[in-house]
Design goal:
CATH class of the largest domain: Mainly Beta
CATH architecture of the largest domain: Sandwich
Helix content: 10-25%
Largest sheet: 4 strands, antiparallel
Radius of gyration: 26 Å
Structural class: alpha+beta
Strand order of the largest sheet: 1-2-3-6
Number of strands: 8
Length: 175
């Protein structure tokens, strides 16, 4: 029973923390590399997101730790486009290259990943589906307000019961 609060806290925190990994959006064998792209949050929505890229050798699937990675993202429904340079410095998992990005519009986004290492350059292309932003924390206001309200009502109830018992039974102190 003592582990229940810890498990509940872990589930809540896991849903809100942005970290390396997430949903696999793309996996391609390109040139000498295997390129895998992960995104968080899941599902990908308008607003802040983390994009992580795993670069591996094609033959042994060893992680490539000395490459330069570039992401180009372009909305298919508007002229919005931007670049990101994922780095291992930004990643918590040092086998990945990570970059925080900000999606301003929902819809399909074209993604191009370019990897260069030792004069060799290759890339992979794919699409990302970005959904509209959720309602945010305001929609959870009732859940956040409920516990303090219940505790407050309980405290008022106890105070009223204590006052009533003091009137009926008087003080229990002896002189």
């Amino acid at each position: 029973m003592k582990r229940l609060p810890t498990a509940v806290a872990a589930i809540i925190i896991q849903a809100t923390v942005l970290a390396d990994g997430g949903t696999v959006q793309l996996r391609r064998e390109a040139g000498d590399f295997v390129i895998t792209v992960f995104t968080l949050p899941a599902p990908l929505s308008v607003g802040r997101a983390d994009i992580s890229v795993l670069v591996q050798t094609r033959t042994g699937l060893d992680s490539v730790l000395d490459a330069q990675v570039r992401l180009a993202l372009r909305s298919e429904t508007s002229p919005v486009e931007f670049e990101a340079r994922p780095t291992r410095v930004n990643a918590q998992n040092k086998l990945l290259y990570a970059a925080p990005v900000m999606f301003s519009k929902p819809g399909k986004w074209r993604m191009e990943v370019e990897v260069s290492r030792n004069g060799k350059e290759t890339g992979a292309r794919g699409t990302l589906d970005v959904i509209p932003a959720g309602p945010g924390l305001v929609s959870y206001a009732g859940y956040f307000a409920f516990p303090p309200v219940v505790v407050g009502l309980f405290a008022i109830r106890e105070r009223l019961i204590h006052k009533r018992s003091m009137r009926i039974y008087g003080s229990n102190t002896t002189d």
